[in-house]
Structure formats: C-alpha cells, structure tokens
Specification:
Largest sheet: none
Order of helices and strands: HHHHH
Distance between the termini: 87 Å
Radius of gyration: 26 Å
Shape: rod-shaped
Number of domains: 1
Number of helices: 5
Length: 115
Amino acid sequence: MPRSVNHVASRARRKNFLKLAKGYFGRRKNVWTVAKNAIEKGLLYAYSGRKQKKRNYRSLWIQRINAGAREHGMSYSQFMGAVHKSGLELNRKVLADLAMNHPVAFKAIVDTVKK
C-alpha cells in the first residue's frame, strides 16, 4: 500500500508559516527552509525582546526619577530609601511619570519624603 502523505495539510502548514515571513528580504520570504529558519530565529528574538523591554523601561524610570530627585537636592538612592521609609506605595513607573510630566506633584512627594 502506498504511503499517505496528506499534501493538503502539509501545504497549509507551510503556507501559514510563510505568512509569518511577509516583509522579509530575498529568499527568506518565499523559500521554505530559509523562511522557516528566519521565522524561528525571529520568534526567539521576539521572546527575549519582551523580557528586555521590561528591563529597559525600569532603567528608563530610574533615570527619570533620578533626574527629578536631583533637581530637589537628593540622589536616586536617597529618594527611594526615603520613599520606602515613609511608606508611600508608589511604584517607579508612577514616580517617573510624575517626575517627567507633573513636576509640582513630584516636588510635593519629595517634600513629604524629606520630613
């Protein structure tokens, strides 16, 4: 009996995979083996990129808080230590937003923390 290969399903699977390669340059967009390798590599980069994005945002928030705190005569570490001692439940994302976009509110937080 001949071997059953189900070309319909394998072709559909390849077609869906090649859709992910849309926009790639050269043979990466239309040759199955090259596209498959490029897509797998791209998915790995996407996974690690989602983790790196969190790190990058945290470091950006720290830089913004540091800049805002130094305008009021404190370093970042002094400011964050005082924030934790005072019991303020504001995370770095919120503090960075206040330091950037609402300097008056950030100054009020610095004043309450300095006491």
